[in-house]
Give the backbone structure.
Amino acid sequence: MKIIVDAMGGDNAPQSAVKGTLYARQRLGVDIVLVGRKEDISSCLEGCDTDGISIVDAREVVTMHDDPSTATRKKKDSSMTVALTMLKNGEGDAVVSAGSTGALLTGATLITKRIKGIRRAAMAPVFPSMESGFMLMDCGANADCTPEYLLQFAYMGSFYAKRLMGISNPRVALLNNGAEETKGGQLQQSAYKLLKAAKDEGRLNFVGNIEGSTMFMGGADVVVTDGFSGNIALKTTEGAAKLLFKELKGVLKKNPINKFAAAILYKDIKSIAKKLDPNEVGGTPMLGISRPVIKAHGSSNDEAMFAAIRQAKAFAESGVIDDVMRNIEYMKIGEEA
Amino acid sequence: MKIIVDAMGGDNAPQSAVKGTLYARQRLGVDIVLVGRKEDISSCLEGCDTDGISIVDAREVVTMHDDPSTATRKKKDSSMTVALTMLKNGEGDAVVSAGSTGALLTGATLITKRIKGIRRAAMAPVFPSMESGFMLMDCGANADCTPEYLLQFAYMGSFYAKRLMGISNPRVALLNNGAEETKGGQLQQSAYKLLKAAKDEGRLNFVGNIEGSTMFMGGADVVVTDGFSGNIALKTTEGAAKLLFKELKGVLKKNPINKFAAAILYKDIKSIAKKLDPNEVGGTPMLGISRPVIKAHGSSNDEAMFAAIRQAKAFAESGVIDDVMRNIEYMKIGEEA
């Protein structure tokens, strides 16, 4: 098992990519290729045991200022482009990158390619919930979606949840503005019918509509939606949590007696933040790409990069992509665009 | 000033509607008409000073099981239908209801009617933020929107923020999946152009795109979006907050020492919940209806009903509807549907 790590992506590159790699090497025993500016990576590795770790030099870096739709094409010698090309050529089993989401998605689609028959790849992060969490997809890859894309997302999410989240019969729900069958706009109403038909054929455990509030209570393992509203749900969760923690911080620092109480609770409150922190869940799989690609959060620290590498390994071992390919007949939509 | 209160709407009807009315009568000095089953309302008013409070009998109740699109038409003698008809006939200055959002919106549109030239009414609740809060509209009235609807929402929200939130030049933003001009789907890209043009003409203080995360940090007073993604943002905020408070509760009750610290912080932590509780903000205005209609949260308690009545009074006094009517030429969209 060899994981290809884009060492130059994210806010803490290349340090966190390298540290995450060292942890992964120790704890998981995987081989890792670090792609990026050789001298920068080497200096981070100085004095470390580099057994099983190799470097592939790439001189350019895709930044947040690059146009995501052209970045990997224009910067052919970028760490991201080289990593994705290596993946395509079979020189590794999965790619991890904390770089620009848009550029990685476009690069993965153009270089590594989608699974044949899959019309759009989707971002599928796992959200915390009162149960063990749920996957929300698409969370930003495709602002405009058709009902058929949502059906494909449902299948892919279901396979992923089965293989990687250990759920034997994943419950799939449609994100909607109400629980009733007739809710939502044209997209949701049409998607509902497709999902219902897949359920009636015994192919999907579709449990109906779910709302933005109730999805956090549990009831679904995979929630499908278009990339626009999925992105709104993802970012709103982040923003609301930030606001709450800021208010909480204000309370904990308000006066000496509160500070005293805060000292008692400090560790436990921090554990909540950790539990709800996207850095901790690791990375977001890009489902629909023909080989495993994991997007690590842009602000990933060492531990988060390690978690993303661990997830990439699990993804590569899982057989999810084979599941999708084997079942593509059910998921096909008219003619390939 | 006379406020018409649908006494039978919401989880705590008619008690909370009546209690809220009594508070409002005491603190605001407004006249109030309570609409609903006379005997139920009277029994709640027993022993109270009913000066300035009258009852209009209505025998039916719109429930959550009624089809929202036909409820007010089918139940002609429902408290909601009677209240909206009274408003239309000028027998009061505003309506407050904690009943079914969908039914109230449909009823307001069919009975009280939209402002001439306004194509869709929108739900416009105020969200908490690190500044003083922002209005997000539409939050669920119209799942499918056109760019022109969003432009009208922007104008209406701007007038409302000016008159009722005391902001001289309200900053209007477009909810999007990124800050750049080119972000979003077809709807957002087209809406951006319309909003930008209105800014260039000096008619709107459009500040560009805002993300679901950053809107909580501040930067906009009014955020416009389609009713589907607005509903997702609203419900996701509720759900994420519930999850966080549940986790926090777990920490505070974890062991005796944590319970001790919790006792110190109890009041202050409760004040956060209150600050972020939709019940506390009061009601949601339905902007675009020709007379003021305030939707109170379905779970409104006495204080929340009072807050909604207070808001209805402010809305009726504000002149927002006149602002919209006076500026309708800028806001018009082709031919009325």
About this structure: DSSP finds 13 helices and twelve strands in chain B. The CA atoms of residues 16 and 110 of chain B lie 27 Å apart. Chain B touches chain A through 58 residues (CB under 8 Å).
